[in-house]
Amino acid sequence: MLDAKEVAKHNSRKSCWVILYGTVYDVTDFIDSHPGGANVILQLAGKDATVEYDPIHPPGLLEETLSKSQILGPVDSSTILKPPPQRPASTSPNTTSEPENPISHTPLPPLSNQLNIADFALTAEKTLSPKAWAYYFSASDDLITKEHNSSAIASILLRPRIFKDVEYVDTSIKLLGTQPSSLPLFVAPAAMARLAHPDGEAGIARACGKNGILQMVSNNASMSLEQIASARASPSQNQWFQLYVQTVREKSNKILQRVNETGYTAIVLTLDAPTPGKREADERVKNFGNTTSAISGEGVANPSVHTGEGLGRALFAGTSPNLTWADLEWLRSQTSLPIILKGIQTHEDALLAANNPLVSGILLSNHGGRAMDTASPPIYTLMEIRKYCPEVFDKVEIYIDGGVKRGTTIVKALCLGAKAVGIGRAALFGLAGYGEEGVGRVIQILREEIETCMRLLGVNSVKDLGLKHVNTSAIDHLLYKTPSYKTNVTRFVEGVKARL
Amino acid sequence: MLDAKEVAKHNSRKSCWVILYGTVYDVTDFIDSHPGGANVILQLAGKDATVEYDPIHPPGLLEETLSKSQILGPVDSSTILKPPPQRPASTSPNTTSEPENPISHTPLPPLSNQLNIADFALTAEKTLSPKAWAYYFSASDDLITKEHNSSAIASILLRPRIFKDVEYVDTSIKLLGTQPSSLPLFVAPAAMARLAHPDGEAGIARACGKNGILQMVSNNASMSLEQIASARASPSQNQWFQLYVQTVREKSNKILQRVNETGYTAIVLTLDAPTPGKREADERVKNFGNTTSAISGEGVANPSVHTGEGLGRALFAGTSPNLTWADLEWLRSQTSLPIILKGIQTHEDALLAANNPLVSGILLSNHGGRAMDTASPPIYTLMEIRKYCPEVFDKVEIYIDGGVKRGTTIVKALCLGAKAVGIGRAALFGLAGYGEEGVGRVIQILREEIETCMRLLGVNSVKDLGLKHVNTSAIDHLLYKTPSYKTNVTRFVEGVKARL
Amino acid sequence: MLDAKEVAKHNSRKSCWVILYGTVYDVTDFIDSHPGGANVILQLAGKDATVEYDPIHPPGLLEETLSKSQILGPVDSSTILKPPPQRPASTSPNTTSEPENPISHTPLPPLSNQLNIADFALTAEKTLSPKAWAYYFSASDDLITKEHNSSAIASILLRPRIFKDVEYVDTSIKLLGTQPSSLPLFVAPAAMARLAHPDGEAGIARACGKNGILQMVSNNASMSLEQIASARASPSQNQWFQLYVQTVREKSNKILQRVNETGYTAIVLTLDAPTPGKREADERVKNFGNTTSAISGEGVANPSVHTGEGLGRALFAGTSPNLTWADLEWLRSQTSLPIILKGIQTHEDALLAANNPLVSGILLSNHGGRAMDTASPPIYTLMEIRKYCPEVFDKVEIYIDGGVKRGTTIVKALCLGAKAVGIGRAALFGLAGYGEEGVGRVIQILREEIETCMRLLGVNSVKDLGLKHVNTSAIDHLLYKTPSYKTNVTRFVEGVKARL
Amino acid sequence: MLDAKEVAKHNSRKSCWVILYGTVYDVTDFIDSHPGGANVILQLAGKDATVEYDPIHPPGLLEETLSKSQILGPVDSSTILKPPPQRPASTSPNTTSEPENPISHTPLPPLSNQLNIADFALTAEKTLSPKAWAYYFSASDDLITKEHNSSAIASILLRPRIFKDVEYVDTSIKLLGTQPSSLPLFVAPAAMARLAHPDGEAGIARACGKNGILQMVSNNASMSLEQIASARASPSQNQWFQLYVQTVREKSNKILQRVNETGYTAIVLTLDAPTPGKREADERVKNFGNTTSAISGEGVANPSVHTGEGLGRALFAGTSPNLTWADLEWLRSQTSLPIILKGIQTHEDALLAANNPLVSGILLSNHGGRAMDTASPPIYTLMEIRKYCPEVFDKVEIYIDGGVKRGTTIVKALCLGAKAVGIGRAALFGLAGYGEEGVGRVIQILREEIETCMRLLGVNSVKDLGLKHVNTSAIDHLLYKTPSYKTNVTRFVEGVKARL
């Protein structure tokens, strides 16, 4: 048993110990390879860091990362002023009517008063820690693409038909031909769910299970992929695993092996973030506490070192920036699961993917506006595919995410050819404060909105939704025009002129 | 004579009595079939509920709904602390110059100071109860369609001509060939007028009678259809009855029989709301008082039960969600009155209606933005009809409602082919506080605005209004383009290219 | 000499006397024919009304209107508590650096600090009486056209050229072939200038004379047309007279005779206001003081009586609503001056005017947004003419007004074919507080902005401005499309399709 | 040694002495030819004017301007109450973590907390003097073009591609074929840098040198061109000199001789400002302190004298307004350096420039919105060139500036054909408070944003950026349409119609 006062002496770069879950670790040699940066560790050097460490690191990470000699043994809890917190248990499902946010300890509105996704966002902003809110809310640069994701699809009009018997509507679909879902809705991969609630990604899994919809599990989840898998309602509940390929490819091989063994039913390969976007709200939270950082003269001298901080950049550490189409062969060699490409943003890439026999589906996404600012809303990409290469719809399933706050948004994407639509922030905002229950309520709200929308359209099942139900005139002219398209029109005009 | 203290003991789901207009009713068996939900009744169990009950239920309803054994007899008024209120009498027409709102008892601006519809809305917001305001003001989801209804038509430009003798203008029209109206304006069906003023729908009827315009009477009026009919200025005053067909069809048969017998001159069949839209402002009023409601875990378990509340959903209870074109035959079998279809939102349905011999007119409407959010403004539908199937104008009369706040709006719709234009909220806002007088002032304002607009256009009569008086270029490109339209253009370009 | 206490007894509809400029008038018989309504007089009955009467009535009006027997003689000034104000003298031109507003007596910013038209508007809002500000600022309904007038032309882009010698620029033009102007700018007819400053229309005349530009004098000026004429800097200063034809045509004949005799050099016939627009800000000022007005039940009973008040409606009284093209013959019979038609808002009317040999010019105007709300900005009309009937430019001179706040606005209109551009409110805002000096500063500011704009365009004289200097793409698609234009395009597409 | 009390007596237009850097000057004869106006000098007459004079005048100017007899000799510093300030030394590079603004002496945020250009603007607004902020921030008239510069390019969408190896990206370019730059970014010529920080233009030079990018040096720099040249990191650092040709051509000849001798590597001839724009914010700062100025009656009398003041107009004094293409021959006769034309705003001028053998490059610029308001954003001009005369890209290099706040903006311009993109205000805002370090941070931020953008696009080097990476549909229709283009389309439609 180590004395906390002894630990406290190792509080510098030369010798740096920390207490985590009652055990003392010597992280001196690890400081400079910490994805989150050295400063974060040094601020906690010699102290109990459990509260800060816990919600953003999956279990097992310490054991993976450190050698046995760096695990110094248990601390004598009587020697520390504040006793080390226990890893928090998941809240029980039978929440009371005045639920209390386990993170901020402020009272939450009754869940039945949360009428829409915007209500959940409002509550999340009030109850999350500033750091967590900044991480979830932030998007790249000036948030133009983030806002555009919502506004573009809102400008599409719906065309309700009359005299249709809509007593019953069937919202169910089958993903990849065999995986049933009660809704054309899934939870898109989003990192660090335990920042919102101790239920974390397992809570999302339970809510998806109860509601019969797909969860895509983030490579950067704050729980292990096995923990999240074990939260399935039944073995038949579908979870797909999102993969960031690591520069050290062997790490990804190991992850894929675990994924293969744990019952995940597809791989979602993320391609829209070969480098992290600049999410200033996230970076700013770090900066504000960071008064000791010197003016980065070194940054000027060595301009290739990007200077931003923030959780987004930290999570990105180790991700491979040099994937090419050839790497699909490697991925197939590591797993026989269906492969989905996430982050398609042009019809050209959609067509390349559709023509690649290793690809089963594509997820049109701009990373929720968190990668390239002023990238197209994914609904534009969907319409671009229809305009230039509609054969893609016959070859792969097309999913879409970004900016989804309403059932009408989901139905519009289906009318234009999407197979299913993902929510990212909406699920996390449901989780914030309420845990699994909140995610369930979010799904319930969207289910009711989808059903109402389908009924008002006069449609009984998802497969009956089509182009005739949407008026896209407000954005038709905003789609990309290929140089050849422009040339053809010009040549056409020129040609007819020449003949007159 | 029952003692109120005895009544007060029956205040639970097991035994539930209420006092209404001095009589005690046992509603224990009715609680779960109450369209407005059980909670509303249980909150008033054992009490005098007249004030809450009165403005949203037509007279006669209790007798229709309850059996004789459930009518327990008169209460001894001396035993209740607050004496039961009398059914309020209609305010006398000779209002003083400083009228007092009979609902909120706040002073109202002199009626002559109300210069436009926006003034009335402002006053209504201040004087109505929060519940009534929420019910009238609310629209679906994010109110996009509600706002769009107004903004779309505001972006159409008017084209005044010069050197026209406009000393006299004739604003009169004939509806359905024989029913005269002094204006191309009608009051569209809107429910629950007594929430605004005790004059209720009868007050609207009197104002319409004095001004010589048509009233469409809501199926969900807060007065009986006979009461409203008896407010006619003369037997020749036209009232059309709006019908929500009930799931229990026999109920609708009975209503139609009463309609046939009471001198209504057309049936308006509502088709734009086979399920209620999600009017969150309305639902929220309920929710805010509803702190005891548990987190709706059941809702999650049984997702087909929609969880929203609100007056809009309550009124919808019992409405048939499964009408088809075949039901027009049933309707014709129940009445020989002309049939108008309300809620046409596409040119396809307009054409189907026009080609149906049972249909005399269509009312282009998105339910004032209260059904599908992001549905088209009705002016788009009107223009769509002209673009794709102008023969509709020759076969049925076309009416339009939604977002009307100005005479110019009405004139523009006429220029584009509408026969008459309806106001919904505007009439209710006129009623709020002022009663019949307010509705009269609203009609007077619109009459003056219509006349001024026609004079400035250089037009003497409604029939002279035409396409040449409006510039629709700001919205022409926003209309729905049929797939065949797009195909034709593409094929055209392709074809000419092929020949060059 | 009459005693004021005696006058004070005649304060009712039965016997109504007022004191004006020290003389007592019996206006009992005149009350009901007062264009501004009876109420205004009755509120001043028995009192000295000079302050209220003076700024909105031209001199000589009393003598014209009343018979000799109604002029009762001078009042004994010692008998009235407040001595009657003298008709105020024009302020002397050598204003001090801290000028004082002669109306509100508040200090004004130094004139050299007023850098643009918006500065003057801001000062005018602060220094004018609420009634005067409302009259000048107001426009019809929702002010959509008023705002559009400015925004439409602001969206046209200018195209500066380089390497042009712009040391000298010549901004002068000749109107109607012979009337020189130092700028392509004129003061459009605007009523009631003495509401802004005692200098009134004569002050505008002096400023125009010193700056060598045209003044159009309003039919509703607050000074006599002879007074305004006598303020000319020289006999060669051009003033055009704006005419509202009166229902009693003989009145207009008399006015035209005076115009002919006083050296005006053209007649501007106003055609965009056969009925007054609904300027609610103007009407509201009246209403607010008007707490005794009863609810206008009569208005409901007699809907053809429009209920609005306000200075705008009062000034309109007596104006003929039934002019036709045939009346041009009458006008020619009364004057040999060139005739300009004001208020052309369509290319159809522009073409009719151009083909009429009695017409020398047309003024594209929507009355500053004060007549029809949602009418086109005049720049659209100008572009419409170029699109559909450019021959108009060869047959008549085209002037334009509405929303002019910047020199760039003026230059853009010239590029598109206007001969000269008018300012209305801008001149009145200059007059407000500062009098003639302020109008001069307004003209000076616009002169400098025009010169700067021309230099930056690389243009030396007005005649060199052309289509190549403006990019109108932002509004090209918003112009009116004639039905034949649409038909042609459709027929064209149909036709080519048929041949493929 | 002169006594300050003696100097103080010479405080009038008759005899006007000032103390500058400890020396007394007699400027009596110079007052009326002072470009900044007489008033500014008279306010400082008889006083030590060093603080006011220093930041806006380059050294050596006094010696150039005044004769020896006007230099009266040193002042006895003991005789002045406040000792004369020394010319401030450049701040040392090793700034502390809480830097202090040398101008406003308020604490600055740590430089590493400045995450984007907007952060620097915010800090600059707080720390600069009102006069300096107004001069930098201001733009012409209503700032429409200034805002449009940013918004137009923000509405262009980027099209990220997937599966590209973007581990390495190369942002370097070569200007004019031989001058390397580490980024496609340069600092555009901007005047009066010492208003922001004593480091002035030399500080910008050092930051550009360390970062390997081009600086264009303003003709109106607040330091001598030799001082700025001597701040080069090495002889190979590129600086281009921006020239305003003077009316007294001999002055420009002398400047060009100095430029030729000091190692500048190109001449940037400014053509977008033959007269100064109306920058009201700048003019207003002067006006507010200027309560003694009389109402400018003279201005009215002599309208060709523009009345505005402000630093912008003062700096313009002496600039030639009459350059033509022929003057390029003169310029070539004075220098053999490559000639760049700055201020091209139409495709017509771009084509003329491209076909002129004396021109090596063109800088598309509207002077940062400071010349003609409502001129096109330069990105429109770039697209116009591609539409109408793409051969320009083959003949000259095209640079662009205006509204650049993000790396994405820069990359978009490159995709559309620009060679490099300039920042003006961004560099000055970096300089404000922080000096050279701040400029370095600005460049570093943009470098990182450019690199991130290129990686997310899937592009490895600048030359790979192309039209396929941008979707310009949001602005395609806003480009100038030549009359011939319109005619062709019309003729085309007419022609085909004729054949049907």
What does it look like?
The structure is a homotetramer of 500-residue chains. Chain A is of the alpha/beta class and 500 residues long. Chain A has 2 domains: 4-79, Cytochrome b5-like heme/steroid binding domain (Flavocytochrome B2, Chain A, domain 1, Roll), CATH 3.10.120.10; 132-287 and 309-476, Alpha-Beta Barrel (TIM Barrel), CATH 3.20.20. Chain A is built from 22 helices and 15 strands. Chain A has helices spanning 4-9, 38-44, 50-53, 61-65, 117-127, 130-137, 144-154, 200-211, 225-229, 249-261, 280-288, 297-301, 311-316, 327-334, 347-354, 378-388, 392-395, 407-415, 425-431, 436-457, 473-476, 483-499, and strands at 17-20, 23-26, 71-74, 157-158, 173-175, 179-181, 185-187, 214-217, 239-243, 266-270, 339-344, 361-364, 397-401, 420-423, 470-471. In chain A, the strands form 4 sheets. The first copy, chain A, has an 8-stranded parallel beta barrel with strand order 7-8-9-10-11-12-13-14, surrounded by 6 helices. In chain A, strands 1-2-3 form a 3-stranded antiparallel sheet. In chain A, strand 1 (17-20) and strand 2 form a beta hairpin. In chain A, helix 5 crosses helix 19, helix 6 packs antiparallel against helix 11 and helix 15 packs across helix 16. Chain A is globular. Chains A, B, C, D: This is L-lactate dehydrogenase (cytochrome).
